[in-house]
Write a structure and sequence with these properties.
By secondary structure, the chain is an alpha+beta fold. The chain contains 15 helices and 46 strands. Helix 5 packs across helix 6 (about 165-180) and helix 8 (about 295-305) runs antiparallel to helix 9.
Length: about 800
Amino acid sequence: MFNRLLPVLFCFAGYCSFSQINVPLTSSEIFLQIKKLNVLGSVLYVGAHPDDENNTLLPFFAKEKLYRTAYLSLTRGDGGQNLIGDEQGVELGLIRTQELLAARKVDGAEQFFTRAYEFGYSKSAEEALRIWDKEKILSDVVWVIRKFRPDVIIKRFPGDERAGHGHHAASALLADEAFTAAADPNRFPEQLSHGVKPWQAKRILWNTYRFGSFNTTSEDQLKFDIGAYNPLLGKSYGELGGEARTMHKSQGEGRPKRKGENFEYFLNTGGPAPADGNLLEGINISWDRIAPSKGITDSIKKIIAAYKVEDPSASVPALVSLYKIISALPASNWQVEKRNELQTIIMAAAGMFVEATSSQQNVVQGDSLKVDILVNKRSSIPGSLENIRIENFDTTINYRLPLNQNFTLTHTIAVSQDRNISQPYWLVHPLTGGYFEVDDQEMIGKAENDPAFTATVTVRISGKNFEIKPPVRYRYIDPVKGDTYQPIAVLPFVEVNYQQDNYVSLNSKEVPVSVLIKSNTDATIANVQLKHEVTDNWKLLPDIGKRVGFPVSEEQHISIVVPPANKINISDPVFARALERGHSFSHYTKVISYDHIPVITYFPQATANLLKLDVKTSGKTIGYFPGAGDKIVDALVQLGYAVTYLGETDLTPQRLAEFDAIITGIRAYNLHNYLTHKNDVVNEYVKNGGNFIVQYIKSNYVGNETIKVGPYPFEVSSGSRITEENADVKFLMPAHSVLNFPNKISQKDFEGWVQERSTYQALNLDKHFEMPLAMHDTGEDDSNGSLAIAKY
């Protein structure tokens, strides 16, 4: 038997928005935000992925320098790895988006994205820019710059090979070009009709770095210490950075909370170079940049001097007077930004607590949502509740708010049948190549959708009306977490979904396809018409469009049979659509839930793949040790194998001998040390005639231990990979049984790759290994480490 040993196809809003109780600003946080009112400077940090940002530098800018600070990630991290679950692609992008937002809640920065899809590892910026459609993503970067209007832009990476890989370098090239293009009214002029104006940042810099032994810093570069301790927060910026970085849990980015000095280095790449450690040198960051603004700086200084830590409400009258002055200034980015900051400060100092919640986790199109609004003024400053609006409900209150008394109002919202479901805006249209299609220019750059429902609560403080707009959130009491808040999603009236991702016709057999139609309401669905869209390669049975009636809230499975066409080895999509009451439904609800981020609800399209394969199989039983998550088991079952999941207790000679082959999931050896500890049992299984197949390994370690795989030594290199999914594959050993039994493998079997030809290849292999395949990226030599086989 062959041992196929390594087939390496290898708040600031004052409230926490998820999974916690509302957390108002503390007195020291209010004081810090008052100090920030006197700083009118801004910094935009640019990288390629979630977790590319400098997590210590962002809070230093936002909470020490008090700049308005933001991070622009070109992608949502869709093509990365996932160490906490089996979500991949757009689902991983949804998770990593929320992880970035969780990090921003720690460091006080804002978050932006472009429409670029992270299609997988890329060695060259040229490839990344081609797949993304450079002009489209460049327009997004320009749009964010024109909206945010940063004084300084900072790149995480350089635009060359020092960046590490293609996405990183591309992010720098796009930032450099956008630095100039954003100021040119002839570049992307269509954006100007949406209220933005050309904007020229003062300078653009590269935040150089030392990653392990790779060092791009030097003492002749601009540098300053960002490791300061902030007594108002009780933390250093290194500690805040550790907290923020640790939110990238899907990437295993847990980091220490660093203390002590920490120098960052910068190289100017555009605009006049700064001096004396001041990145914003030559930029007026005082109120003098807004005319007329005489006296505002002094007013803020007086409020700071008179601030009472034990009684923030004592500053409210002066803060409201300042709010009136700023509101009277000519409209500008800074006028709007500082007015909004000031309103948040006033509400926090006045102890104003406002929330809108529902006991319903979701709401369905055509149904209703019961909303509870709570208002409590927890300081002695005089104030009144003037008005509450939500959807089509508008009521005048005129209620003088007493000290620390709850005012509650309950209203039921009627949700239209035509209301859009809560699909993340970048997933409304199918993914197009390397970017998401977004029709609405105003949505581009935003981190996420606006809340499905928002209340508007008008309160009057010190003679001035203020509108507070809390999102309506699902509130419940978790027996472990306690008071818990989650987003509310609008669900479709009817859902339709295929029960499998792939339906395989093996050797010309008919294909039973199971479809699920589900009502999300208590209303009886009695007249649903189901439609399927297929290519001409497939024939549908005549009754496939029949009408189906079923009781209230009952799931209905509809089995159809699709006779395959007289062709071999074809793959085509099939789409399902349900028609009910004049509306069309073609999506289903999917929920992603982890403790460190809000619950994510999104709606994949009802689609599956129809495959006709002529495949021979050998053996019947397979044992499977799960790894970090893959779809291999589903595929094996559809090929007719009996697959059994295995764990540590199954690693005995007797148990393994029950199976014709054993397979380990992706990165299983990096996750489970028991595979290393019982490598002798694996070797005995192979020696006795078993097939042991290992999918790709990311590194040579499990924790701090060196992994042991099989009887002969080899190494894995995470830096050795073939990233071009259409790279030519050479058959070095065309007569080898792995390429001929039980099926002959040809070049056609390597068509349709969606990401990377070969990830993490084997190197320095023992002489017993055979490597039947070779491949290479453009401009590189052949590598044969994608598939390694050893007899034992």
